Amino acid sequence: MSDPFAADGVWLKSALHTHTKRSDGELDPAAHVRHHEWMGFDVCVITDHWTLTDEPSTSRTLVVTGAELAVDPLGEGRFTEILAIGIDDIPADPGGDRTHWQRIDNYDFRTFPDLTAAGRHISGNGGVSVIAHPYWSGLPLEVLLAADGIEGIELFNSSAERENGRGDASYLWDMTLEAGKGFFGFATDDCHYPGFDIGDAWTMVRAAERTEPAFLEALRTGMTYASSGPTIRGVRLDGDAVEVECSAASSVVLMSRYETGWGVRADARNREEDAFILERDPAGLIVRAMVRTAGGIAVPTARGHGPRGPTGLDERALTLACPSRTHAGRVMAQMSGGPSRGFRGILPADLGFNETTRGVVTSRRGHG
Ligand SMILES: [Zn+2]
Question: How far is the CA of 68 from the centre of ligand 1 (A)?
């Protein structure tokens, strides 16, 4: 079982999907890394298209070489792409249909026949494979279910979200998990233009130490959570209760298989027969809340604690309860505060509840 919150090690704020001038990005690799350093990234994986970009790490930011590879498209304009993180070889002939191969910008676009073949090459090279922006690409569920030997999917890609509103693939993640496919979920910004599209989503990686082998091993074992806003400090099982500790939230939702799920909201639409806000702070954020599940159990929760977090918002702890592990689903919390965009952080799939369990924390960017 992977529990990044219980493991020893360091948290690494990681950019898993980025492009430099060596493919279709804006900056030369050194400037690209510098921008990631300025944005507080501990790890910058450079995933130029079909290109291995080696750039030295800095004292603060570990640079990992990867690539964004592709497989034969499902149809016209339906690109199926995959991140290869930590590889050192790109095959000259990956075995796909050559009619799709072409020179694009300054790289040679090629294809593997399918995701399983790509994954086999990547893991054979010591890398970690992540299916890129499946919603943006329009990947059918069957394609994901047929992909073997792949570590995870991008369940949120903020550049895809900006481009055509299809950055959030969490529905596909739900469906794969419910089918027993244990993909881990990662968030990326797919940065091409630092200053414009950097830092809108990232993956927090709990690595044994700040080295490339430890980082890759943590990705491989799901010692991560994904975020585009909130900080998640802990997720624990306490009997049948799921306790989530995260940054201040305006809503917390425990979602589960299909339509069942329960939530507490800070707004007027909280459904009080299921969920009760017991205490709010002056800003209206939930301090204590109670969720009554279908099993009729009410477990209360949450207390304010701790110093102000890195978001500038007060940190809170929230506890939700679920009477049956078979009903445990995902936990979603929403930060209040600012106007702006909704953000989401997603917890690891494997928390030991059941095969479909995952947690999600959604937020909006706060005042700070
Ligand atoms: Zn990309």
Answer: 6
Percentage of the chain modeled with pLDDT above 70: 64
d(CA 109, CA 336): 43
**pTM for this entry:** 0.79
Terminal-residue alpha carbon distance, the chain: 36
Q: What is the pLDDT of residues 138-193, one digit of tens each?
A: 999 999 999 999 999 998 898 998 888 898 887 888 788 767 777 888 889 999 99
Whole-number Å distance between alpha carbons of 51 and 65 = 9
- Point out which residues pair with 363 in neighbouring strands: 343
Tens of pLDDT along 52-107?
A: 999 999 999 999 999 999 999 988 778 899 999 999 999 999 999 999 999 998 99
Q: Which CATH class is domain 10-226?
A: alpha beta
Who contacts 94 (Cβ-Cβ below 8 Å, separation ≥6)?
69, 110, 111, 112, 117, 118, 121
Q: Ligand 1 centre and the CA of 96: distance in Å? A: 20
What are the structural domain ranges in the chain?
10-226, 232-364
SS (H, E, C) 184-199: EEEEECCECCCCCCCC
What's the 241 CA to ligand 1 centre distance in angstroms?
A: 38
Quote the ligand 1 centre to 353 CA distance (angstroms).
33
Q: What are phi and psi of 135, to 5 degrees?
A: -75, -45
Nearest-angstrom CA–CA distance, 288 and 285: 9
